[in-house]
């Protein structure tokens, strides 16, 4: 059973927007757990390019890790992405999304949702695929719609990494 005292906080958005860095720093600041983006761990172990079917496996493990850590966290659980990232990416790359992912989106039940803006410069890493400004804008706008549909709203967070961290802490402390 989920620890109802723990507030689950989602940090989401397009690639290269500071999600992982900010999520980890928030967990350290609030002395609690964070859930990393499982897709990176999965891809690190994969001996081939990922495909559509891999996305459902990644989503199931991400969901499972969120549930386990929610029971173990202190006060807050910070999640570096959730199933919405996999849905948005799946529909962008493959024009479809596995039904399991869609069925489990609303079951994540986040208390606060932060959408990271694309105002930071895109930085290369081996898993990032969308450096173009146009695609980043398209994905950002897709997130706005998805987060409204799934969670009923979100806070857009922009600025430098330090500014992002400060803004999120202010909203958390007011909640």
UniProtKB/TrEMBL annotation:
Xref: Gene3D superfamilies: P-loop containing nucleotide triphosphate hydrolases
Domain of life: Bacteria
Domain NadR/Ttd14 AAA positions: 8-164
Pfam families in UniProt: AAA_28
Protein name, per record: NadR/Ttd14 AAA domain-containing protein
Species, as recorded: Flammeovirga pacifica
Source taxonomy: Bacteria, Pseudomonadati, Bacteroidota, Cytophagia, Cytophagales
């Amino acid at each position: 059973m989920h620890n109802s005292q723990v507030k689950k906080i989602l940090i989401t958005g397009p690639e290269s927007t500071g999600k992982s860095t900010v999520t980890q720093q928030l967990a350290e600041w609030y002395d609690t757990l964070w859930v990393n983006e499982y897709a990176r761990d999965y891809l690190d172990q994969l001996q081939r390019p990922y495909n559509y079917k891999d996305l459902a496996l990644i989503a199931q493990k991400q969901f499972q890790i969120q549930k386990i850590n929610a029971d173990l966290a202190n006060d807050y659980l910070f999640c570096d992405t959730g199933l919405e990232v996999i849905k948005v990416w799946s529909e962008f790359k493959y024009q479809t999304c596995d039904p399991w992912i869609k069925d489990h989106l609303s079951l994540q039940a986040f208390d606060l949702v932060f959408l990271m803006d694309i105002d930071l410069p895109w930085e290369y890493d081996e898993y990032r695929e969308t450096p173009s400004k146009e695609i980043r804008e398209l994905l950002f706008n897709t997130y706005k719609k998805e987060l409204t549909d799934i969670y009923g709203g979100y806070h857009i967070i922009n600025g430098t990494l330090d500014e992002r961290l400060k803004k999120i802490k202010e909203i958390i402390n007011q909640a």
